[in-house]
Every structure is written in C-alpha cells, then in structure tokens.
Amino acid sequence: MITDLKTLIDTCKQELHDREYHAHHADILIKEWDAVLQWFSHRGVSEFGQDIGYKYCDEEIGSHIIVKGMSSRQKKRLRAVRMLLSYQQAGDFEFRTPRVERTYDGETGQLILQFFQHERMIGRSEKTIACRQIALYHFNQYLTGHSLGFPDLDIDAIEGFFKAMDYSLSARHTCANHLRQLFHYLYDYGYTHTDYALFVLKDQYRDQCKIPTTYTEDEISRVLSAVERSSAIGKRDYLILLLAAEYGWRSGDIVSFRFSQIDWDSNRISFRQDKTDVPVEYPLLSSVGNAIIDYLKHGRPKSDAPEVIVLAEVGKHGTPLKPPTIHSIVCRYMREAGISHWKEKKHGPHSLRHSLASNMLKNNVSMPVIGTVLGHQRTETTKIYLKVDIGKLALCPLPMPALATSHYKEVTLG
C-alpha cells in the first residue's frame, strides 16, 4: 500500500492518463490533489491514510461523506480526496462517494466487527460480508438506541427490531439469516452463554415467495438479435447477454469473468460463484466461444485487466464493469427488442437466469441438472422453478374421488 502522499498522487495521475480521463475532468482532480499535498506540506506530514484523509475532509470541506446541502464544489473536492483513499486501499477508484458512514458503536459493535474479521478469515466472499455489514449496522443501531446488549436479547427484542425496520418478507428473511450467523459465532466462541439464533423466529418466505419472472425462448432470441454487433460496444453487450442467457450467470459472475477461468484446450469454463463461492463448470459453447473471440479481436479496449469484459467509455477505459452496468445493458435490449410489458416485470440479468431454468424445465431437463447449471447447493432452491411450468402443473391434479355420503349424493360435479 502506498503511504507517501506525493507518490500516491503521482500514481493516480498516471492512472487518469491510462484510463483516458477527459482533460478538463483530470485537471480538476489534479488541482485538488495539489491542494491536498500543500495542506500536508504545511503541517510537515507526508504519510497519507484514512484517518488523516478524513481529517483533511472534515476541516477543509466539512465532511468526509456526502451530506445534505453540500455544494457541487464541495462534492468535487470530496470526490478527489476519496479517490486517493480508495486507490490506496483497493487499487481502484471507488464507484461513488458514500452518503452514509457505518460505524459500529459500543461493545456490541466491537463484537460485530470481530465477526466480520472472522468471516474474512474463513473465506466468506466480500459481497456476502458487505450484505452482513448493512444488516448488522442497523441491528447495532437498534441495540445502542434502546440501551440493549446481547445478554438482554429475547424473542420480543428481536421482533421489536424487525418491526422497527418494517422489512418486506424477503428483506426480513435475509436479515434473519445474517443475525443467526452472528449469534452462532458469538456462542461458538464463548462471547455469549446462549445461542440467540434460537430467538430469531422462522418466517414463511419459502412458502410465500413470488413466482420467478421468466421470458420465452423466442423473447430471449429477440433480445439477442436486438444487439448491433458491428460496433465494439455491441460485441461487448452481445457477450454479456449470452453469458446471462446461455449459462444463467449472475451479474457478479459476469463482471468478474477472467481469462484464467477459460480452458480453451478442454472447451470449458470453471470458477467459483461470486455470490455463494460454490465451484461451477460449464462447457464452452460455440456461440459463447465465438462471441468471446470476436470481442477480444474487434471490441475489447487494450487493457491489462485480468477480467475479460471491460469498459470502453472515456475516463473508465479498460476497467472492469460493475454489476449495475449489467442490469442497464439487459434493460436496454429488452426495450429495443420490443418485449411486451418488460417494465412491469423483473428485467435484469437475473430474469435471464430464471428464464434459462424455466425453459430447460419445459424441455424436460431434470431438476438435478438444472440445479447444477445454476450452481445451486440445495435442490429446494431449484424447485421454485416448478411453479412456472404451467403446462406440467396442469398434468398434476388428482381425480376427485366419488362422494358416497347421503349428504352429497344428489350433487353433480362438473
């Protein structure tokens, strides 16, 4: 990690050049970085880090996160400093300046932070940890706001938290899972004498979950045909849609798709899923393989990034995509393909994943095979797609038995 401020600024300046930032935008950032360097120089400080970076923002800008009423000028200055911090910590510029700073106060907060560290040590994905951080931040805020510690927890206290958050059924289900994992950790490592996971009541999410949004094979074909594949952007977008439609990949897997995951000799793609960390393997379909080659030869910007698919836009040239970009791309071609009522339905990459499973089921592919393709760990997860095959459901009703009681003997069943 680069701690010398001047070296860090020089590195970030080169990064702006390599990413082909617009000259005007780059000049604004460089001017702000020079001001930061001057501020540090006046104080005889050369080492840069989060604490001193936040101190600069708080003193010179007014905050180290975006707050209500902040001017455009202040936001630009803040953005410049946070770009230095994010590049120092992660080797990349953060996607956007946050509006919320999550701090975990009190003894409960310290234990929650230890839990996050434990999760990293056992190999939990950063995406999962990020979701836990959001849920447990709100839980810790609730505990501190009500002067509660872990020994004070019972069913009423936990239900009070859920009531205060007013979660939807799916959000409650997800948060409950994060709480159970935290409570298991606290009990297993002796921080509590009771496994408070017992006080997190079961919900009816699995029984009441909605039917997945799906599109027919014809609609998927129309979406793919809507791509203008003569342009570099079109070649990229076509490959993205194929990975979602042919393999059912989630957006996280698409943006992290790397050259090292392709075995050209054996014609297969292997990796660990971004969401679940479950290893999966796919045959390298000719349609996908040809799309990859076409993109690499005629569409991919020059970049040393290990990811296959990168941005071509000015200022972000050659950098990996973010999951929201995948959603925007799918939406664009849903619209251009003229898919009816797509706005009223789920229309991101996950809808293509659902559609793949549904269409495989209609073609009599077995549930275990569908589960393997989607990378599911449990058959129960795959069974949700049984709900969307109306044709096969129509074959399932049982015949009405004859009613022999005197009460019903005059009734004719239609």
UniProtKB/TrEMBL annotation:
Keywords: DNA recombination, DNA-binding
SUPFAM superfamilies: DNA breaking-rejoining enzymes
Organism annotation: Eubacterium plexicaudatum ASF492
GO molecular function, one term: DNA binding
CDD domains in the cross-refs: INT_RitA_C_like
Residue ranges occupied by any Core-binding (CB) domain in the UniProt entry: 107-187
Top-level lineage group: Bacteria
Name of the featured protein: Tyr recombinase domain-containing protein
GO biological process: DNA integration; DNA recombination
Residue ranges annotated for the Tyr recombinase domain, each copy included: 210-398
Family affiliation: Belongs to the 'phage' integrase family.
